[in-house]
Structures are given as C-alpha cells and as structure tokens.
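Now read these lines:
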Amino acid sequence: MIQDLTVSEFLEALSSKKPTPGGGGAAALGGAQGVALGEMVINLTLGKKKYADVEEEMQLLLIKLEDIKKEFLRLADEDAVVFAPLAAAYGLPAGTEEEKKHKAEVLETHLLAASLVPIAVMERAIDTLEIMEFLAEKGSRLAVSDVGVGVQFLRSALLGAKMNVSINTKFMKIREQAVDLDRRAKQLAEHGSRLSDAIYTNVEAALTTE
C-alpha cells in the first residue's frame, strides 16, 4: 500500500519504469497532502480565543478532512489495483473474431473502472477545496499561506485526475459512456479551477494586506 511506503520509497517506485504507482496515484497522494495542510490550519486555529466563534465548526471540519484524507490514500492504492487488469487486457489475444470480441468487452470493463477512480479523486478534491475556502477566510491568519499551498496540491490532484479520465475514455468503444465521463470530469475541473482561483486570490490579498 502506498501509505505504508516512506517518502523516498514512494518516489523511487514512482520514478521507475513499473506501471504503478503512476500519475493517478501521485494525483491522489497530492490531494492527501492538500487535505493534511487544511488539517494543520485547523489545528493551529483550535483553542485560540480569537477564533472561538468558529471553534465548533472547525472541530467538525477536522473530522471531515481526516475522512477525506483516508479516502485519498485509498484511492491512490485503488488506482494501482484497477490499472493492473487493464494493462493485462491490452495483451489479450485478438486473432479470431471471438477473441477480438472478448478482448473488447474486457477492455471496456476495465477502462470504466480505471476512469471511475480519478473521477472520485476529482470529487474529493472539490469537497476539500470547499473547506479550504472557509479556512482561507476563518482560519488562523498565521497559517493562511498554508491554505494557499494546500489549494495548489488540490488543484494538481483535480487536473491530474482529469487527465487520467481522458486517457481511459479515449479508448472506450461505448462512446456514450465515454462522453458522459468526460462531461463529468470537465464540469468538476472547471468548478474546481474557479474555486482554486478564488481561494488563491483571497490568500494573496491576505498576505499583502495584513
């Protein structure tokens, strides 16, 4: 499991020619780092008299972020799990019409599975960005830059995952299914990018005016 690796071990595996971990796992792990920075901001906010009015909400958001972080780590591992049978499917024989049909069906199944994982990564990135928007406004002013850094990790997770959706839908034979997935990914990417830009602007303003 990726979460059981040291940072050095993960980077060594990522830089090798092994098929996994790859961009999908890296995107999910980047999302987890963005979440962790959000948790840090909350922990630096909790217990401070200046932020007593948001104490209860911060506590609830901390629990939510911890759940999202675990989900990102699960998705990082799931990305490798769904890729293995997809890679194997490309090597299936296709000499006869029956073999071609079987290969196409197997590929379609695994292309779908490999697309749903990055869609989930994108959805979790959006969930976290919505929390980061709140933290940028209500979290400790001493850690507002960390909100900004976390947002950039989440933006990378969001847009990186979109690329992983696209590389799989590109080869789908059921085009209606591919179009639906691409449409969902595009909507998530556009919403998340707008949200990231807005938070970045707020953080920049906080850093230059306080």
Remarks:
- DSSP finds six helices and no strands in the chain.
- The chain has one domain: 21-209.
- The longest helix spans residues 97-138.
- The domain at 21-209 is CATH 1.20.120.680 (Four Helix Bundle (Hemerythrin (Met), subunit A)).
